[in-house]
Design a protein that fits this description.
By secondary structure, this protein is an alpha/beta fold. The chain has 8 helices and 6 strands, in the order βαβαααβαβαββαα. It has helices spanning about 15-30, 40-45, 65-75, 80-95, 110-120, 165-175, 195-210, 225-229, and strands spanning about 5-10, 35-40, 95-100, 140-145, 180-185, 185-190. Helix 1 packs parallel to helix 7 (about 195-210). Homodimer. InterPro entries: Flavodoxin_fold, Flavoprotein-like_sf, NAD(P)H_dehydrogenase_qn. Keywords: Cytoplasm, FAD, Flavoprotein, Metal-binding, Oxidoreductase, Phosphoprotein, Zinc.
Length: about 230
Amino acid sequence: PGKKVLIVYAHQEPKSFNGALLKIAVEELTKQGCSVTVSDLYAMQFEPRATRNDIVGQLHNPEAFNYGVETWEAYKRGGLSKDLVEEQKKVQEADLLIFQFPLFWFNMPAILKGWMDRVLVQGFAYDLSKVYDGGLLQDKLSLFSFTTGGSQEMFSKEGIGGDIRYVLWPMQHGIMHFCGVKVLEPHICYAPENVSEEKRKEMLAAWTQRLKTLWKEEPIDCSPEWYFK
């Protein structure tokens, strides 16, 4: 109780299956006494591109623009654009980050990838000597909840798509673990568009059930073995 949750949601349609998963998470976690904040990226018209507009005022090096260096310097002097500062504040306050999205091309949608690119800047989320278990966002949990177009069989070691864990490596390990965030088991709804209404209801019920005991879960073992064994 009293935990703070940020749900970063990337779907264009509130009536979608992803929209239903979002609604359940907000209701269930609120019922538990958590305070839940949602960043609805499409509704916010969130800018996914990392550009010099992300820096307010003087550039550190106006001669040659280096996004990583400029945002790091801007973060240190409080010179990041307003939308980034707002998202960073939400991340800072959260005990748990839930990312809710449909899988596009074995990856997160561009708008969500843009959120990662722009919000998790050096100085805020990591530092050169402070990464992985030493990342700056320790003591936070994350959970990737997403839908796929392909079936569970397709995303198995033997399937045409290979193990779904390979897809999770850049997101969970390369981003979250890199920033020190602990990672809970992903929540994957396989091909909701291709299953019966009955099966979809079961998927939504399973998500509700999982959320009830979420805070008792242990994070996954953040090692290459988890993904590639």
